[in-house]
User: What shape does this take?
Amino acid sequence: MHLQDSVTLEGRYADPDLRLQAHPGEINRAMLSQIEGMIARIKWSKRDIAEFAGCYLSEPKPNVFFDPPDAPISYAAFNKRTSKTGVTLHPKSRLLFIGGRFFINGEAFDSAANETAALQQLADHHQLAAFPATLRERFYDCTKPAGWRSPHHDSI
Assistant: This one.
C-alpha cells in the first residue's frame, strides 16, 4: 500500500492568488505553506504506519529485477518438488511480518493461523525444509511473473 492509495486530501490544490514569479521553476513559500496545511490534516493510525513500514521496508530497491524461470513449472511438479525439498526465498526477496500480517517485496497479505509459524520461520531464515501444503499454492503463484522464490537446490 502506498501513500497515494490510502490518503485522501479534501479539496484540491489551487493557487488562485498566484502572482507571476521571478523564477517560474521555484516552489514558493505560499505553495509550501498550503501543502504543509494539507499534510498536517493527515491522520495516521497505528495500522497505517505498520502497513506502510511493512510494504516500504520489503519493497525491492529500484535496481532489483526478478527474472521469471526459463521454463515454467506446473503446479503438480512444484508441489512434488517443494514437498520433498522445501523452499528458499530468492536472495533478492525480503519477507517481513508484523504478527500474522506478512510483507513480501512490497506486497502485503494475511496468513491463515496454520501458516503463521512457517511464514515467520521463512522470514527469519529465508528457507523452509518442510514446506506446508497450505503455502504451496500461495507461493507457486509467486514464481510465475517474478520468480520471487525458488525450491531448494533449484533455480526456478
Observations:
- Helices lie at 3-6, 29-40, 46-58, 75-85, 116-125, 133-143.
- Strands lie at 87-89, 95-98, 101-104, 107-110, 127-128, 149-151.
